[in-house]
Design brief:
Number of strands: 16
Radius of gyration: 25 Å
Structural class: alpha/beta
Bound molecules: adenosine monophosphate, zinc ion
Number of domains: 3
Distance between the termini: 33 Å
CATH architecture of the largest domain: 3-Layer(aba) Sandwich
Strand order of the largest sheet: 5-4-3-10-11
CATH class of the largest domain: Alpha Beta
CATH topology of the largest domain: Rossmann fold
CATH superfamily of the largest domain: HUPs
Helix content: 40-55%
Largest sheet: 5 strands, parallel
Amino acid sequence: MKIYNTLNKKIEKFVPHNGNVVNMYTCGPTVYNYAHIGNLRTYIFEDILEKTLNYIGYEVKRVMNITDVGHLQSDGDTGEDKMLLGAKRENKSVYEIADFYTEAFFKDFEKLNIKKPSIISKASDNIDKYIKVIEKLIEKDYAYISNGNVYFDISKYPDYYKLVGRDPKELIIGARDSVGEDVGKRNPFDFVLWFTNSKFENQIMKWDSPWGVGYPGWHIECSIIAVNNLGEYLDIHCGGVDNIFPHHTNEIAQSECYLGHKWCNYWVHGEHLNSSEGKMSKSKGEFLTVDLLIAKGYNPLAYRFMCLQSHYRKQLVFSYDSLDTASNAYSKLKSKTLSLINDGDVNDEKFNYYKNVFKGALEDDLNTSNALTCLFDLLKDNEINNSTKISLVKDFDNVLSLSLLKKQEVDEKLSSKIEDMINKRNEYKMNKEYEKADNIRNELLNMGVVIKDSKEGTSYEINK
Ligand code: AMP
Ligand code: ZN
């Protein structure tokens, strides 16, 4: 398999440390709000990567953190703790906020057919481990205490800029504008390992430490959760491109100084989903969540399909028009795959031919759009029988996870209830009683039924 490695800025052959087993770490969410569909684009790409590795014969041990403490508004350790902002916004405790949005995050995973990583670890469950590592970094003189906080001294790690690969002067100018208040830092990019000099007296999550009561910095969480669960050698570390600097840059610095050797060989980053106004955000413009798409009548898997049509290293601009196009293509694809009926024996030669083409696309830096082209070519191929097609679709769907052969299971009683409700709603609409019509739509949504209006009438789909 070949994959683009941000560390060396080129597409490289993937070779794990330990034969058939791949150690993979993916940065998890900061659980102060719902994930937006941009965040979920990154998790879809990571899911495809994990499933591709499985598909080509690797065993993947994948770890993800849940950030419930230490991630400030700016990734460069300034601003307020995001969790605290969430708690204030909703008048709840940080713990309640963390539990609620962690659950919502994994519900989104289910709706998008994203596999849950085998190990998930909450940042706040590992405090003693961060403290041990920070003590070691201070002892080795990589970290220092200033103004009550513990900082990592980036000047002690000459390769600090190796991942970002840009002229540090450019970055330093950028940081000086925003960092200002941290007067105790030796270098503007020195980052916090442990906060005690908290600007936020109302910080609820705090723990005793040799440096006073406080809480860990965001970057140390990922390094330690990774090392603790996957050992000293990591094969793949993923995230979105915004994580390259400073988050992953800092992860590399502290991990390699702590371990005393190179830590991770492949750094793989997904490009962003943008809105037409630019960067997708939870605070500006329409907050695009999976549930919002469902409420608007879209099948979440149409969004997954849309992501797979583009390359993970290309920016993607979200619009409802492009989602409509993807949604129609997905429905057509699914009606084709569902209409296939077994008609004989699987032709091994044809099976292997298409499997190799499909595998080749994925092994080529996860070219999911070529993998989909292979699927469309297969469905168009008149020289191949349905049984072979069904076996291949099933096989491809192990990676694509588009539920291509999954029929909606609706019993008769339920389907007549749904139809009655749809008729009633249409009656209300005709009478311009829109509120009542919307109430029925919401009632259906609560039952997991998504309705879609078109010129031909109202159709519906049942979410899994
Ligand atoms: P966060 O919850 O903010 O820590 O982000 C979770 C993940 O989403 C990280 O891996 C980010 O790199 C990624 N991410 C943030 N914004 C976007 C976006 N607009 N498109 C794709 N991925 C994103
Ligand atoms: Zn991380």
